[in-house]
Amino acid sequence: MGQVRRVAHRQVDGVWAQVWVNALSDNDFMFLFATPGLGWLDQLYARRRTIEQCFQNLKGRGFNLEATHLRCRQKLRKLVALVSLAYALCLSVGVVAHRRGQPIRRKPHGYRAVSFSRHGLNILRQLTRSATACDEAAARTVWPLLAWLAR
Question: Which residues contact 62 (CB under 8 A, 6 or more apart)?
């Protein structure tokens, strides 16, 4: 587990590229196949994965941008801007909370159980519910951030 192998100049379906293999838990493997430089293929994938998570979250995981029926370009632009700001807020809350004592637990394979944006969204949902008891640590983390954003 955790071992990485890089193999250069392999051909798959007539395409020459590099292969990056990472051994995960339970005999699972992550294969990356791409034409960019082999030395930084995993870093490139990590950036792309972050962007993909952002789009997945905006489209369906709590923000439901695809559920809109707007057709007016101006209104759609405003909606995308507001949803993007909401996503940025949730991401910021999740990162700050993770650093200040509410860490995201890790699954057995080493990845986080939830993304930073989901962590932040869960905290904000908890703080806005009047029926549930507010977590003091979460409130102390989020209110300074919200005050900073308001300024």
Answer: 90, 118, 121
